[in-house]
Amino acid sequence: MQSVMIPKGLCDEIDVMIRQFIWGSTSDNKKITLVIWDSICQPKSHGGLGIRSLHDHNTSFVMKLRFKLVTDYSSLWVNVLRSKYVVQGGLPESLSRGQYSFLWRSLSNIWPLIHQNLLWSVGDRRNINCWKDSWVPNVGPLYKKIACNSSLDMDCSLSDMVTENAYWNLDFFLLWLAKDIIH
């Protein structure tokens, strides 16, 4: 469960068994549910029992692995997977699924969810793609905000957008983006 995506149907079946256990039901003897299930799934601090959906729990485990694959270059398993599946530095737009291991297929299935929820911390600006990576809060990738990109280098890093004096090149951004995004 921590390294592969379990089929949603199987997760739902196990969730049903958990519900039956909580209510004391069996397949022959159904009990009345006294509280709505969403209330029970709330955290204990909000009055629930803290029970999680198995599918959501499985997804969060695999997302954690995927996040490590993107950010942790010191772990052996990260270096092995990056080398085996030829993932260069930075954040790829997609992952191939083909005839790969169960772990890699699980990571590639969850990739769109990771990609849309990941926000880069700027740091030294070299590893961030200016247009394709999400680095501006609540905006997403900037290429989606550009009106016309015929002569724009979509593979430039964020460090290319800084002047020699270490200031943002706002004139360049103003050519391609709306003022409300820049300010």
What can be said about this structure in brief?
The protein is mainly alpha-helical and 183 residues long. The chain has seven helices and no strands.
Question: Can you count the beta strands?
Answer: 0
User: Beta-sheet strand percentage?
Assistant: under 5%
The ordered string of helix (H) and strand (E) elements is HHHHHHH
Low-confidence stretches: none
Largest sheet: none
Shape annotation: elongated
Can you tell me the number of structural domains? 2
Query: N-to-C terminal Cα separation, in Å?
Result: 43 Å
**Percent helix:** 40-55%
Radius of gyration: 22 Å
Please report the number of helical segments. 7
Broad structural category: mainly alpha
* Rounded mean pLDDT score: 79
What does this entry look like structurally?
The chain has about 180 residues and is mainly α. The chain folds into 2 domains: about 1-120, no CATH class; about 120-183, no CATH class. It is about 40% helix and about 0% strand. It is built from 7 helices and no strands. Helix 3 packs across helix 5. It is elongated. The mean pLDDT is about 80.
Question: What's the arrangement of secondary structure elements?
Answer:
Layout: H1 8-23, H2 37-40, H3 54-71, H4 76-84, H5 102-117, H6 170-176, H7 179-182
